[in-house]
Amino acid sequence: MHHAKMEVQSNQSAGNQSGGLKKRLTSVWHHFKRDRQLLLIFIPCLVFYAIFRYGPIYGMIIAFKDYQVFVGILNSEWVGLKHFRTFFSSPDFWLLFKNTFLLGFYTLVFSFPIPIIFAILLNEVRLRLFKKWVQTLSYFPSFLSIVIVSSMVIDMLSPGNGTVNQLIQYFGFGKIYFLIDPAWFRTIYVVSDIWNHMGYEAIIYLAAISGINPTLYEAAKVDGCKRHHMIGYITLPGMLPTILVLLILKAGSMFRIGYEKVLLLYNPMTYDVADIFSTFVYRKGLLESNYSFAAAVGLFEAVIALVMLLAANFMSKKAGGKGLW
User: Fold this and answer.
1) Where are the domains of the chain?
2) Where in the numbering of this chain does the ABC transmembrane type-1 domain appear (predicted)?
3) What local confidence, expressed as pLDDT, does residue 72 receive?
4) Which pTM was predicted?
5) Euclidean distance between the first and final Cα of the chain, in Å?
6) Residue 305 CB: number of other CB atoms within 10 A?
7) Which of 101, 172, 243, 322 is the most buried (most CB within 10 A)?
8) Of 170, 178, 310, 314, which is closest to residue 252 (Cα–Cα)?
9) Quick one: CATH architecture of 83-320?
10) pLDDT under 50 in the chain at which residues?
11) What is the pLDDT of residue 38?
């Protein structure tokens, strides 16, 4: 009797699971039919990431091999962690780690809050024409390539006829050789990054502000709140979910600094403060053709970035209950 009851319960459970699975599949198919046009538009993006983001992951195997171009990836000799041990024991490791961390940290600390402040200030402007002009001027640098931005920075800081040095001389001070003085490199990088991305990132925060219920502001006015009170108690809390998500992404990319701008701005005089993982990988991989060693360094950088992303997401969920997942 007991065995018969257990069998009946088992059959009922299996039937419930089967029914639940069928409902989920039906729901998925319903959503697929409903959003089929959006999914078709998404296909090129999916193909791009599959080919150019996930496809190259296979090539990371050369970090564990002595890769020879004419032998191929699979037939190259397996050496395990040899390249990682070489990198960790080299004098370059701690210098690169320090430079990458400091450059990423300064960029995060100084570059992240500026677009938030800028978006709030723009939102408070009531002269529409002035607001549009400011927005247009702030967005413009985001449409310029890194090469153009770096060239403009070099021209403005030139000791010969650069705008900045001309202003310094106008006030009676001597020239400053910004680009060959290591003390100035990180400041130049961070300030140019703020100028380049401030307007574009402010768009996201302006969109978050526009999603705040306007009746909250009206109620606050009725209660006699000043503008700075509304910013502190309505605008900033309304922006908080967006701020947390972007903070997580920024923290995750702290170690993933692109080599392009650093490569264009640095020189042998500033290597001690400017050389980072990305530029080191560029030199070792493309200039010296040491592909396996460069792949090992790049893989280490990617792992550190992943750890930073997971840590930032964990802390965000603990602090504010919001995260990427």
Assistant:
1) 2-61, 83-320
2) 97-312
3) 85
4) 0.81
5) 47
6) 19
7) 243
8) 310
9) Orthogonal Bundle (1.10)
10) 1-2, 4-6, 8-9, 14
11) 84
The pLDDT score that the predictor gives to residue 321 is 64
**pLDDT at residue 99, rounded to an integer:** 92
Structure tokens at 189: 């990088």
Q: What are the tokens at 268?
A: 């042998």
pLDDT at residue 115, as a whole number: 92
Q: Which two tokens stand for residue 47?
A: 């193909």
CA angle 298, 304, 309 (to 5 degrees): 125
pLDDT (0 to 100) of residue 4:
47
pLDDT, residue 17, reads 56
Q: How crowded is the C-beta side of 262, counted as CA atoms within 13 Å?
A: 25
Q: Do 295 and 302 form a contact (C-beta atoms < 8 A)?
A: no
